[in-house]
Amino acid sequence: MAYKLELYKIIAEIKKSKAKIVLLQFPDGLKMQAINTVKKIEAKTNATIIIWYGSCFGACDVPVLPQKIEEQIDLFIQFGHNNKTLKMGQQGVK
Amino acid sequence: MNRIFISAKSDIKLHKLISESIKKIKKYKKVGLITTIQHLHILPKLEKQLSARKFKVLIGGQVLGCNIKNAKKIEKKIDAFVYFGSGMFHPLAVAYATNKPVFVIDYVLNNVVQISKEERDKYLQKKIIGRELAKQATTYGILVSTKPGQENLKTALQIKKKLEQKGKEAILFLGDSIFPQEEPNFLQIECWINTACPRIIEDAWEKNIVNIDDF
């Protein structure tokens, strides 16, 4: 069983935006692929990649960072969810 | 947002634990008093009581889990530390980083205990072994916390660079509370380098974990 992480998209985005530091967030089932994903992206770009060390319950749950850290991170990517189609939180059960 | 910190002073009265304390520390002539912010106002009272029993007493003052400089500054002038408060988290920090016996007057558990030499030695041995093992790893995970008082991203980036220059692999991790519960998701990591709260390494980690200074 494999999940398509579409790394080519991420690599293209990093190159296009010249992102220097990128934060990746994986839900529990994908966390075991996180380190290999970092290695692949770092090998193909000049960016430094960071893995979010914490929960990822859904698109509802993205890291809220202190300004000092947020301003150092150029790009954030969450795997395994989307935030475009369905309402979330208590809005979602209505 | 305006931030206010309340020190939450304890209203505890010095009581029967004093005589038990005196029994336990009687072979030490000079004692240094330390505590956490909630009990700082108790120390002068404790000093008075112990001085009356012929102890030479120095007040060190407040200690934090990660900062015991108020204990360090009196270490050479005393024979033993007396910590007044509850729990072992703070007095352990003093026991680990000084060479003097540490007695704990724990008014919640209602007892007076000395932190054993074995406990201190075990911790120090673990640190030494951890330091050696850390040199042998090839894949490191560098832990960074977003907590404003613990954040160290800059140092983490420098460590990653240095490790990579040595031909090692270094993966950066950013989180809020850094718990070992996340550890099983990242099995490739052979050694963690903790740039957040230095006491995190005392938690139940599977893999070796070291602080910046031990690396």
Q: What global shape of chain A is seen?
A: globular
**What CATH first level of the largest domain in chain B would be assigned?**
Alpha Beta
Structural class of chain B: alpha/beta
CATH class of chain A: Alpha Beta
Report the C-alpha radius of gyration of chain A, rounded: 14 Å
N-end to C-end Cα span of chain A: 34 Å
GO molecular function (chain B): 2-(3-amino-3-carboxypropyl)histidine synthase activity
Protein name (chain B): 2-(3-amino-3-carboxypropyl)histidine synthase
Pfam family, one (chain B): Diphthamide_syn
GO molecular function (chain A): 2-(3-amino-3-carboxypropyl)histidine synthase activity
Short description:
The complex is a heterodimer of chains A (94) and B (215). Helices cover 28% and strands 15% of the residues of chain A. Chain A has 94 residues and is α/β, with parallel strands linked by helices.
Secondary structure: elements and pairs:
The complex is a heterodimer of chains A (94) and B (215).
Chain A: H1 7-17, E1 21-25, H2 34-44, E2 48-52, H3 67-70, E3 75-78
Parallel strand pairs in A: 1-2, 1-3
Chain B: H1 17-25, E1 30-35, H2 43-52, E2 56-62, H3 69-75, E3 80-85, H4 89-97, E4 102-106, E5 111-114, H5 117-136, E6 139-145, H6 153-165, E7 169-175, E8 191-194, E9 208-211
Parallel strand pairs in B: 1-2, 1-3, 3-4, 6-7, 6-8, 8-9
Antiparallel strand pairs in B: 4-5
